[in-house]
Amino acid sequence: MSRIGRQPIPVPDAVKINLAGSTIEVEGPKGKLSFTFREEMSVRHDADARQITVERPNDERPVKALHGLTRTLIANMIKGVTEGYTKRLEVVGVGYQAQLKGPNTVNLVVGYANQIQMQAPEGVTVTVPDATHIQIAGADKQAVGEFAARVRRVRPPEPYKGKGIRYEGEQVRRKAGKAFGK
């Protein structure tokens, strides 16, 4: 049995839940999110106890997998509209830098002949506290993580000098290089 799926999801006072058919809408101080779950799952909102429960009809393997997934996605939505999610990136390398050009547009100078501009999706905010750090924030965990991965993909950290864009605190495996063999 899914231990995660059986746990009720607590709903804070600042969050409004709207459950219509197989769509759940969550609205809070940081934004509004909606999610359409599979028909196999039944989601119930108990307004008096301020909690949401997710139940499954049987113990078949695919349904068991959807049980925990559905519960976790709804819990992430509630956390996103109350606290929000943040990803921090570091730009490492001589002359490598990030600049904010307009609202939610980041300009990257990372060793290519031209600068790369990336526009953040709706609901995601980008701030550049200094030239070597990028902070990506938003209510939708998937959108924040996807945009952070797209920015990192522009110039992933290379193993010889460690130059590139990396997540804050990420450990880059370093290689010795060919001079080490002599």
Descriptive terms for the model:
single chain, 182 residues, alpha+beta, Outer Surface Protein A, domain 3, 2 domains, four-stranded antiparallel β-sheet, three-stranded antiparallel β-sheet, 3 helices, elongated
CATH class identity of the largest domain: Alpha Beta
Structural class: alpha+beta
Strand order of the largest sheet: 11-12-7-13
Intertermini distance = 57 Å
- What is the CATH superfamily label of the largest domain? Ribosomal protein L6
Total number of domains: 2
Strand content: 35-45%
Query: What is the strand tally?
Result: 13
Describe the structure.
- By secondary structure, the protein is of the alpha+beta class.
- It folds into two domains: 3-82, Ribosomal protein L6 (Outer Surface Protein A, domain 3, Alpha-Beta Complex); 85-167, Alpha-Beta Complex (Outer Surface Protein A, domain 3), CATH 3.90.930.
- It has helices at 3-6, 61-82, 141-154, and strands at 9-10, 16-20, 23-28, 31-36, 42-46, 51-55, 85-92, 97-100, 105-109, 116-119, 124-130, 133-138, 164-167.
- The strands form four sheets. Strands 11-12-7-13 form a four-stranded antiparallel sheet, with helices on one face. A three-stranded antiparallel sheet has the order 1-6-5, covered by helices on one side.
